[in-house]
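Run log, item B.
One chain of 549 residues. Sequence copied directly from the ordering sheet:
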Amino acid sequence: MRSDARYDFIVVGAGTAGSVVANRLSADGNHRVLLLEAGPPDRDFWIHIPLGYGKTMFNPRLNWCSWSAPVEGINGRRLYCPRGKCLGGTSSINGMLYVRGQPQDYDAWSQLGAKGWDWEGVLPYFLRLEDHFRTGDPLHGVGGPVHVSRIRSGHPLADAFIEAAQRCGIPRNEDYNGVQQEGAGYFQVTIRNGRRVSAADAYIRPARGRRNLVVETDAIASRVNCVDGVATSVTYQKGTERRTAHAAKEVIVSAGAIGSPQLLQLSGIGPADLLGARGIGVVAHVPGVGENFHDHLRVRLMYRCNRPISTNDELNGWFRRLKVGLAYLMNRSGPLATGINQAGAFVKAGEPSDRPNLQFMFGTLSADLQGGKIHPFPGFTIVATVLRPESRGFVRIRSADARAEPEIQPNYFASERDLSELLRGALLARKVVNTPPLKDLVAAEHVPGQACASDEQWIAFLREHASGMIVGHPCGSCRMGQDDGAVVDERLRVRGVGRLRVVDASIMPAITSGNTNGPTFMIGEKASDLILQDWGSSRGAPPRESAVV
């Protein structure tokens, strides 16, 4: 075992939040930072192509390819759970939609004990991270690391969806990240000049030349080591070599909503009964580690299109694929330069509400499995999502072996309210599709089909087809708060352990209303300031002279 490497800060996980933290902590040149990533560098061609995530969705080199435990509420099905395993983490394989969520989401965090994380407290960090196309808008940042663009050009199917939504009473909204979220329109995406903007692009690449930042890839952390209740080092596997790196100041765990509770539990931090059952000595009894795990729940409706205008048509056949490839290589244009879900809507439906409770994502292609082989016919997909699910599950280690997959239990439909909300969303999605001008482009409903008509039939369909993990929004498993069930405080310090923090989506007390990558960038930005403040530092310019390590 190598045990000679010493740093000020060790960041475990080079995903969205970890990349931000490593960049910001190393920026002034005064702190030596080690960033550990279990996967490889982000050199794979398909990572950087916006439509390429179909190629990374099942690639075990770039993806943990996890599976949930059987979930009772969805007929005992196990769900596939893609998680990024490379520089940039899931931001290197996701759908690139940029959604901040609703101000009320963050105000609710504050009310749950996360002081300073209300909308007023997080907005400055959204502004700092953004390089937004809506320049001159005080609600958007310009010049930040994360480029946010609009979908480049309209698609006839997406245009028809937006107009049909308007005819169903859903207002058009050109900026759901602006004054109000409600409405239908084109998505904002983390794409720049036809290329994905991942956390690695935005934060790691600009920092690569710093002498005080060391990035270790293919390095699987197995334990945070503590002495007298204080985190002092991290043990990790690099190839056949077992290494230990020492942290003079702090260890920051940014391994995601599944990886972070797993690593804490492996390190003896978690529910004492679970740790004892796995033969792990208890460093700190923190019962909330791995609890409160949740995710957005959604269902896909798929349709056959009566005209060859879908992305299916552009990608079926070698000659058409060649044409698409040339368009991308020559002009960074065409379907490869865009994501699958081009348009969407945030909708108030059901009980009186002052804010949207459902999200629709509209994709111009169709496939039996997201990221799988596309259908041989013209098709499109509409996805209905419950924005604020009540169901809660858990993440628990199965053994003391860091290589063993933990038990991932999302516990979907544990709340009947989630089922009724998703039913409401599916019915409204069908209504939008059956409204002109979108209706005029439909040959038939492929899934579930018009035979699914009664509420009972719909509920049976939802239990058999609803999912959530593949959307990639797991969160909450190391939640922030002040009560006994909280894992971290409002400064993201782990309860009962010194010099240890968690910084990623796992700290969310409750999921945000929309795709979670944008909020996770924000968490990394705010956490970096908290850490630097606690160590008497402030943000500064990158060191002038540097080298790759």
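Observations after the first pass:
- Residues 416-433 form the longest helix (18 residues).
- The chain has 14 helices and 25 strands.
Flagged for discussion on Thursday.
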